[in-house]
Amino acid sequence: MQVLTSVDYEKVVNFMDEMTNPITDFRTHVLKTFKDLFDYHQSNFWLADNHTNLVDPIRLNVEQHVMNDYLNGCSQWDYHMPKHIEHKLAKQRVLRIEDIIPLKQYESESYYNEFMRKHGLYYQMVAYIINRGKLLGGIAFVRSKSDKPFTLNDVASLEIIVRYLSESMANLEEQAIQIECISEKEREVIELVQKGLSNKEIAQTLYISIYTVKKHLQNIYKKLNVPNRTSLCYKLQNNNGTFLGNSNWQINLRSE
């Protein structure tokens, strides 16, 4: 097992610290943080559908025409597609192209000649986000041949980070399901709770009785799986900014 250097370890810790900051666009924030901390300048963050296909990519410094070319036929040649490497994913969650196929052979294959080389790319590394055996998504990093290759230290760092991200994404999916069950009136109550209003003040603001406010809060606690007002506020403020007190209630995993 590759041992992280102190520099790499610091990058991993800084990445996790950065993910604790309030954010509204989870996937874009992840890619930008990788760029800032690890110099991964070109990347895509995919989600996985129920058939383990990678879909709905978010791009960072990858041109739209490159993505279109990939989606319109070249993806079938990609050795990193989950269906091609299921046996490897049982042990590893981060794979470079050379971990799948020798580079000499790769250079003779259609994926390299018809897609990667065409767009000035050579190296590829993908981190698969898996939680409790379910594939949630994947982050693909690419570099040109003139850039430095992805190293075993990169793989070791990402193996740690991707496990952290798998928990974050699983939590976001769970929260999305919870939020879908929240009514419009309950959302209004939550926003006022976040602003520090008392039950009496909420009742006056929404022109409802204190009893109705308490009933809404009971329903909210049950739906969001929290025991009380304090726990509710803590959850709203400490889940990657997902539930910050404004009108942005959508879990921003999907692209626009």
Automatic annotation (TrEMBL):
Gene3D superfamilies: 3.30.450.40, Winged helix-like DNA-binding domain superfamily/Winged helix DNA-binding domain. The keyword Transcription regulation applies. The keyword Ribosomal protein does not apply. Residues 175-240 form the HTH luxR-type domain. It holds the Pfam family GerE. InterPro entries: GAF-like_dom_sf, Sig_transdc_resp-reg_C-effctor, Tscrpt_reg_LuxR_C, WH-like_DNA-bd_sf. Keywords: DNA-binding, Transcription, Transcription regulation. GO terms for biological process: negative regulation of DNA-templated transcription. PROSITE patterns: HTH_LUXR_1 (PS00622), HTH_LUXR_2 (PS50043). One of its GO terms (molecular function) is DNA binding. This is HTH luxR-type domain-containing protein. It comes from Lysinibacillus antri.
